[in-house]
Design brief:
single chain, 272 residues, alpha+beta, Glutaredoxin, 5-stranded mixed sheet, 3-stranded antiparallel sheet, 9 helices, globular
Length: 272
Amino acid sequence: MNMKQLVPVLVLVALAAACSQKSTPVAEPAAEAPAAAATPDAGVQQAATASQESSEPAGAPSDPSLQRMAGIPESVQLPAGRWQAGKNYQPIVPAQTTNADPGQVEILEFLWLGCPHCYDLNPYVEAWRKKLPAYVKFSQLHVTWGDARDQQARLFFTLEAMGRDDLIAKAFDEIHRRGNNLLGANAAASQQLHVTFAVANGVNRADFEREYNGFAVNTRMQRAGELTRRYRIDSVPTVIVNGKYRTDAGMAGGNAELTQLLSDLAAGEKSR
């Protein structure tokens, strides 16, 4: 097997354990398809660590009040039954403000296009979101951890800003099924890969390039960064419900279970 054949294989193996912010870089040849958590340098570096690993976000501001667990107040617990506070979901104390309108319940999913667990969860989320009641305001946010994952975030938010959310699933497929991580040796090289991907999927090149570094995408990137820091997101996929609860598929017991838990938490919030 030559180098061109070997690199995509190594990339896919590394992706199987790369959903945490804290990582150990592994050098890859700059000319080949880089790993999903690549950091631009003379070569491309790849992040590979165990998923759902808890770590303090690098450079995160000290905020002892955020997500401070002070027992589990009854006001943030679901009625006794299937879900247990502290096991299936963690209350966030104090609760954080949201961007939802009065009467709405905000649900935020933090993800990363290069994360295999996010990829596995995505079909469940897409099926679930189609059945959501009007009072649920659901958004997906790509993490911005200050490395090459930010380049994939820019692709994600450009597609969203253009109303081409349907291509997000195709971007997941491109990375996890075809071994093309949509990352270059630097930001400019990544942009060219993103343009190529978009055009191949029917997006107008000029429109895509205009949005890519435009106000709407830059605003989305900024908001994603702020919320990633506010909620101390250090592993993905992670879901925040109404600024009060943090959970993931592992805590819920599986992908299908997670979507049911989210619905139940949202319904509980609506009834308060």
